[in-house]
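Record 1 of the preview.
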Amino acid sequence: MPPLSARRRAALPDRAFAYIDPRGRRLLPIHDKAHVRNALARFNQVVFENEAARERARTRLLNAAKKYGIVPVGFITGQLRSEKQRAASGRRPELPTGFVTLLMTDIESSTPLLQQLGDRYGNVLNEVRDIVRAAMLQAGGREVDVRADEFFAVFERPVSAIEAAAAVQRTLLKRAWPDDLGVRVRVGIHSGRPTLTEAGYIGIAVHTTARVCAAAHGGQIIVSGRTRAAIGMVVPTGISFRSLGRHRLPGLADAEALFQVEADGLPTRFPPPRKDTARARVRGATEGTTRRGRVRADSQLLPAPSTTTMNVIGTANRIPTSRARPATAA
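->
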């Protein structure tokens, strides 16, 4: 790669750099393919002022890699190793605030899998976590919490959460599992404004995300009406949304519009949302598919966010409330 002259560097706009430090120094140029590759190799050599700055730079770098068609396998592997070390140490990353998109995953039929695999289940669980974590990192997400067979992540852009979820399901489909067992994960996505505390995110948005995830079947991705509305017309290529109608989810005051994400290479036929978590289908809700350039203008499918308040720490199936039943984990 030819060196970047001082004159050429000065002429580049700020957006051509992945990171600008507190002193105004512009580091990690990402204005062309060669420099993106170089920035990927040098990322861990840069000293960031805090975790939030590091996350912003990483997201910009990954977006640049995607723009130039670079699959940063080595970079993702290194970041995955760092995330696992951070999780093992108990250090919590700096998480975004404001309007964010939350993603939760849960292994379907985890109890029968454990009974069939015995001690080998631990290896399967770790492999699933690695798949979810890698997809999350590549899409610019951040890990919030991991417990048992659940994974909780946050994204600043709803489209990134959709891309991560599709990547997870594609990878799981291609993976060979012990004893030819089918290991399937359900994914739920919801957007909102949770409150960030020292214990993590709390609020109705967290509770809703857990309920949306519990309504899905293994291999399926379900998003809430709030997330579908936030995405609007900016739908990734190869992605579409099928309305599943409005459903009453346990613990939530209002019926929630649910949409199935349909992506290239993924199955599209699933039973209705799980009966134990999405019992009462709302009359009059219609079904259909919205695709890039053709978005349904149906206000009934995109309800206003609930104003009900409820403090929830972590996922809903771990925190009992006066109005919520624990979601089943298998």
